[in-house]
Amino acid sequence: MYKITLLLYCIVLSASPLAAGNSYSGNEPATALNDTVRLDEVIVTGTMPKVNLRNLPMSISVISENQIEERIQPNILPLLTEEVPGLFITQRGVMGYGVANGAAGGMSMRGIGGAPTTGVLVLIDGHPQYMGLMGHPLADSYQSMMTERVEVVRGPASVLYGSNAMGGVINIITKKQQRDGSHGMAQVMYGSYNTLNAEAYTGWKKERLHLVGNIGYSRSDGHRENMDFEQWNGYAKVGYDISRNWRSFVDLNISNTESSNPGMVTAPMIDNDADITRGMTSLAVENEYANTSGAVKLFYNFGTHRINDGYREGGQPVPQRFNSSDQMAGVSVYQSYSFFAGNKTTAGFDYQHFGGEAFNKFPDETNNVQLADTSLYNMAGYLNLQQTMLDNKLTLNAGIRLDYHGVNGSEWIPQLGVSFTPSAATVLKAIVSKGFRNPTIREMYMFPPQNPDLKAERLMNYEVSLLQMLMDNRLSLGVNLFYIKGDNMIQVAMTDGRPLNVNSGEVENKGFEVSTTFQATPELRLSANYSFLDMTYKLLAAPEHKFYVSANYTIGRWNISSGVQYIGNIHTTLIPEPQQGSFVLWNARINFKAFDWLGIFAKGENLLGQKYEINAGYPMPGATIFGGIRVTI
């Protein structure tokens, strides 16, 4: 299958590079009408101030609003799994990811991420989203309709974002009403397994004041018994442009998710239910002048978790319920300044205080068992220098961060990169960057095998890449080669007859990523991406081969798109015996714009009816069909 896949890919590259979208190493569609890429695309995630893509040494993929709307996915993560090479996100059902045993939503970037995910940082408008106690993001919280675009940094971004950005960064950039007046959109979708999704979005602007709001509801019976999922979510942002150079906004994002875990098919679970509320609010004041720009951002994350561990068939219900509440408060300040021609110097400071309380609650509340009641803090300062020279053909980047953890002390994080543009259509890049991750409160204090003496994980990333535009910029090609070497990875080992978290693990990953888009005609867009990952030390849920190819065709009021994804040699378990599998998924979508204000759509997923698993013991659903309408005001 591997040889066949490589052969198909070579044919695609030589004939007409396919894929629905344009997320390749560092590129974004130029407009919603023509989804080819631009090398001068302005990016905000790779460096705090806005900067052209060609001047950044790291690999960045950008998913546009047009791609998001075309894909008809309530959650943004399945789209990222297809469109971003090197990124893989685990799933377990038709809707919802869940938590605890059998959970999905695990994110890995070039094999770096962890289970649960603590090595890939998720941001909303630059604000970190991980939980105070557990230290990982909650995959069910990231909705599509509120999202304008997504920027994904592939590889360490610890110089700017600190601990959890060891493997990379996913920055979800929310919508903003650009013109005076109002705009609204609503969508309802229904399909297999009694799955329902309903969302509504609105935006309003008058002179300097602008606001957006989004509310959504999702539910599904799931494709297995005891796999119910239900979620409410809402998002609101109010912005005020103080002057031509100063602007501000405040936002609130909150969701409540109730989900059930059916357990492995060989050991079904009963009443393994979770009720989780997550919230985030932030306040930002930004400035932008000709030679300087910066921001002050305050944020606060909070959440509660109520989990019934359930019981297996033939067993007895457990009397206790897991309860926790966690918080993370922080501030981020940065300012960039151009001291002379071609220079951009950025200095920043971050502070975070995170923690919470967790306990097992019994019915009479007299024998409650406390699991954690603690908090930690982290602060850092960083400096990033960018210098362009040789008639803007050469850009040098250098960064350094000093990070201080309340328990583990200081950590230096360097980064050095170069970008060379020999012509307007070609960019060559190279980067050496360090990634690190501090242990979470969960790993240090909460559950066996907790260990309060854990130290930070560390790795070095070495990468070279090429971005090339051809055929009057209708054809784009991106190629990346990378090597990752790390140690001090946290893993469980038997110590004095009991399991214990220790810094004994290693990681050595190398591979390459290829991605391409082709605007064949004004109506037809084709593209593809492929990533190969060679792991010296095998990791769960990190496929060796990941290939996605698709096409998007628009004619009149009709839009038709289809994509095929191949996942090869993915480990679903490592202990006691390694198990791995491969599968091919075919998805298709059709949209019809009946009126200017009404769209009708249908989509099918896994249309080949593949039987496969991503999490061991959790078979994925077969072919599923969904349909719905979208109203625009």
Number of strands: 34
The amount of helix comes to under 10%
The fraction of residues in strands falls at over 45%
Number of domains: 1
User: Briefly, what CATH class?
Assistant: Mainly Beta
CATH topology description: Maltoporin, Chain A
Q: Indicate the low-confidence ranges by residue numbers.
A: 1-36
- Cα radius of gyration in angstroms: 24 Å
> Biggest sheet: strands, sense, closure?
22 strands, antiparallel, barrel
Overall outline: globular
Q: Which structural class fits the helix and strand makeup?
A: mainly beta
CATH architecture: Beta Barrel
CATH superfamily: TonB-dependent receptor, beta-barrel domain
Distance between the termini: 48 Å
Q: What is the mean pLDDT?
A: 90
Query: How many H/I helical runs?
Result: 5
